[in-house]
Amino acid sequence: MDTLKIATFNVNGIQTRLAALLAWLEREAPDIVCLQELKTPDARFPAAALEKAGYGAIWQGQSAWNGVAILARDSQPLEVRRGLPGNASDPHSRYLEAAVDGLLVASLYLPNGNPQPGPKFDYKLAWFEHLIRHAAELMESGHPVVLAGDFNVVPSDFDITTPAPGKRTPCSSRSPASASSASCGRAGWTRYASVSPTGASIPSGTTSASTGNATPGCASTTCCSAPAWRTTWKTPGWIAGCAARSTPATTRRPG
């Protein structure tokens, strides 16, 4: 059984960050990459540059905001769905699902929810409920599933980038957003691995989830049904899990 190297990366604008993304792909050679916040329309997604680097891709773009993609090294992801079931009226590009290397992989970008209370926060909780229902079905399907991306929900206050006494954000446990965490538990996600890259090898204290244009109070979380997983302190976050490949691993490097 081969080991797959899977990364989730909020690229925050793939056009402006393309050179950095390509350099990172060549250096780290992940097998599967889930990208968020592409901030580009479908027609401008840099598929040719990624293909030259050795990665097949599917994407769901959106001008200026949102957008998700799935990359696969030396193979082409097979799209399963875009958008969550029961949420067809959502105009935002936040969920993309594909079959890759024997796994069912989803790249997702949950709404931030600011400000709260208000319609944006209500939209966040409603979106989360659609995700929970679909994820529960996926997890019960018996297929190996990875849901990776920017959940805009933190598992604990340890993961908040700018903690402050009494501060309420739509991502923290002090916020009514904790209701979404309770719903997650009701859906049975506690039986699966929830991996927070920011806290994997940092024993205590608080830390920033990322540098640059980080949104205060938000961090990236990944849920995975793989029985064997680990994380290391890197940006973007990593999951290394054992999974059977549908095709033999190759050694071709980008270039």
UniProtKB/TrEMBL annotation:
GO terms for biological process: DNA repair. The record marks N152 as: Transition state stabilizer. Its cofactor is Mg(2+); Mn(2+). Residues 7-198 form the Endonuclease/exonuclease/phosphatase domain. Mg(2+) binds at N10, E37, D150, N152. Residues 163-184 are annotated as: Disordered. It comes from the Bacteria. Keywords: Hydrolase, Magnesium, Manganese, Metal-binding. Probably binds two magnesium or manganese ions per subunit. InterPro entries: AP_endonuc_1, AP_endonuclease_F1_BS, Endo/exonu/phosph_ase_sf, Endo/exonuclease/phosphatase, ExoIII-like. PANTHER family: EXODEOXYRIBONUCLEASE III (PTHR43250). This is Endonuclease/exonuclease/phosphatase domain-containing protein.
